[in-house]
Amino acid sequence: MNRYAIVLAAGKGTRMHSLDPNHSKVSYPILGRPIIRYVLDALKPLNFKKVTVVVGFGGEVTKKIVGKDADIVWQKEQLGTGHAVMQTKELMKDLDGETLIIYGDTPLVTPETISQILYIHEKEHNALTVVSSVLPDASGYGRLVREEKSNRLLAIREETDCSEYELTIDEANTGICVFDNKTLFSYLDKLSNKNARKLFYLSELVEIFNREKLKVGTYVVTDMVEVFGINDRVELAYAAKIMRKRVNHKLMLSGVSMEDPESTYVSPDAVIGADTILFANTTILGKCEIGVGNEIGPNVVLNNVKIGNFSKIISSNLENVSVKDKEQVGPFEIRR
What we know:
Layout: E1 3-9, E2 29-30, E3 33-34, H1 35-43, E4 50-55, H2 59-66, E5 71-74, H3 81-86, H4 89-92, E6 98-103, H5 111-123, E7 128-134, E8 143-146, E9 153-157, E10 171-180, H6 181-187, H7 205-211, E11 216-220, H8 233-253, E12 257-258, E13 265-266, E14 271-272, E15 277-278, E16 282-285, E17 289-290, E18 295-296, E19 300-303, E20 306-307, E21 312-313, E22 317-319, E23 322-323, E24 328-329, E25 334-335
Parallel strand pairs: 1-4, 1-6, 4-5, 7-11, 12-15, 13-16, 14-17, 15-18, 16-19, 17-20, 18-21, 19-22, 20-23, 21-24, 22-25
Antiparallel strand pairs: 2-3, 6-10, 7-10, 8-9
């Protein structure tokens, strides 16, 4: 079956409180890589036939980051998730297959989880599969309203539209979903903005599909971290901490030693050879290529640097340079 993806990346990110009017939320970096790049890279192994990114606020910045990895459509006014998907209609409406819809501010999602969501959607022959998570505190999220006896999903209520009872529900809508593509665009125009915020919510399609006797299923993510969306700089730092641990863990298992993983920051684009030791307060950004048996740190910053084998880099700042085999750099050197 053909697979397509729509990445929603038009939001302003008001809670980031940036002074830069062109700073899109999805362009903020984690370990030197923009948020949306993590999402696009999670999609790559799954062979999507088409990926479309919906941009809006700061769209030119986002467009440059996305590059040739996706088609771009514009949402000039931010009128809700349903309205965002409507902007892709001319590109997508006639395509056979299934469409994943995902937010561009969810950098911690993994290819494995996306693959499992798609598998469940296909296995159960759903017209729509909603991805949810059970939270100790679901404040800020839409709630999944289920039929008590059958547990069937009846509706998704945005928090501003919830009744007092619905606010007690702990199953939250992650915003990730999968549709049969042609069915999605057949019903998209039926969305209304008769709600507290006067927005067109994609989640309203749950009720519409139920009325039309179309099969709606759910996939409950056990680790909410994977579908965690970034809305402010506190959440950005939280996501960066988790990503740093993932990157460091992978490197150490591959044969790289770290004196203090808690103070070591390595770009996911860096390549580091076995038996290299990273001492405390080492930061490696960009597409660094580091050979085997090197000693790097303490107090080193590298950015897009190529290092040979068995070299020592001590208390230095290097950017866009090469270091030969068995060379010592530092302490206190700056090379650019």
